[in-house]
Amino acid sequence: MTSPTKAEGSGSAVALDPELETTAEVAKGEKKLEGRSPGQLMWQRFKRDRTGVVSACVVIFFFTIAALAPVIASVYGKNPYTLYAQEPDYPFLLDDFAMPTGSFGGMSGDFWFGVEPKLGRDVFTMLLYGMRTSLYMAVIVTVLSVLTGVLIGMIGGYFGGRVDYWVGRITDFFLGFPQQLFFIAFMPVVTALFVDPRDETPTYLRAVAIVLVMWFLGWMGLARLVRSSVLSLREREFVEAAKVSGASPWRIVRKEILPNIVTPILVQGTYILPSTILSIAFLSFVGVGFPEPTPDWGRMFAVGADVYEQDPMFMFFPGVAMVVFVLCFNLLGDSVRDAFDPKTGR
Fold first, then answer.
1. DSSP secondary structure string, 20-69?
2. Angle between the N-to-C axes of helices 262-285 and 297-307, in degrees from 0 to 180, rounded to the nearest 10
3. What is the pLDDT of residue 190?
4. CA-CA distance, 224 to 163, in Å (whole number)?
5. Nearest CA to 234 among 163, 328, 317?
6. What is the average pLDDT score of the chain?
7. What is the reported pTM?
8. For residues 341 and 264, what is the distance between their CA atoms, to the nearest angstrom?
9. Cα–Cα distance for residue pair 98/116, rounded to 1 Å
């Protein structure tokens, strides 16, 4: 191999091998033309959406403080169960009408968000634990509803024919239930199956009943969405090629169809969760959700509705928290949809 030669006249410059120059240029060109996966493209588009980023930060903040509610309450020095109006350390916390004696619902350095009318519990820790209860329940219901909706929608959409017909009729049957009325009527029935009406219903049993009822009536919308997406995909060339190659239906669904419907599933899931939180709050508001003394968003609204004329601040903090969370989660769902499909961008 010929060694590099010095440039004539200068004695210092070294001429590079032409082959090495070509290799370097090709490597540089390959680096410039390096492709990005759909996930990377989605992430790049999402990061440019300020509304989506801010909404995601707010949602993460809510989940973080809900998960750390016991730690925050321990540092704060209060809990949502103690009746502080009956404690000797806090005399005159409530007046003769069982209303907070301080301004703005009893807000002070000891009670940041005030105290609950009639009982004197700390509103700040009640809100923390109420958020924790609602968010955890909503996540469980959302995951179960999404899994059920995807499974049933794929079965109907992929197999078609009589299978699709009967799956569709079952879905229509469940859609015929008036959800809010069904919640109110069926919740006592579910709890009465396991607990004598004269006994106190355990909190865990109420939680299981809420999950079952909301899961029972929460999967139909996603099932219809998945069915329509699968119907449009099962006739595509790549699915036909997989069938010709002898792939099993399970492999076709898992490898060919499911990756192509992740976007609508994810977006729909971001809409189901805030709707579930509102439904859980509604159940407690009408008295068929979590019993006392379990902290819950909905029951705080129920108490606030009774005392809003005497103590409007009691409803202020849980109301603002719920509005902010639901709004940010819906905006996050819009941003995720736009990031996956830029044609729908706002």
1. HHHHHHHHHHHHHT----HHHHHHHHHHT-HHHHHHHHHHHHHHHHHHTH
2. 40
3. 73
4. 14
5. 163
6. 80
7. 0.79
8. 10
9. 9
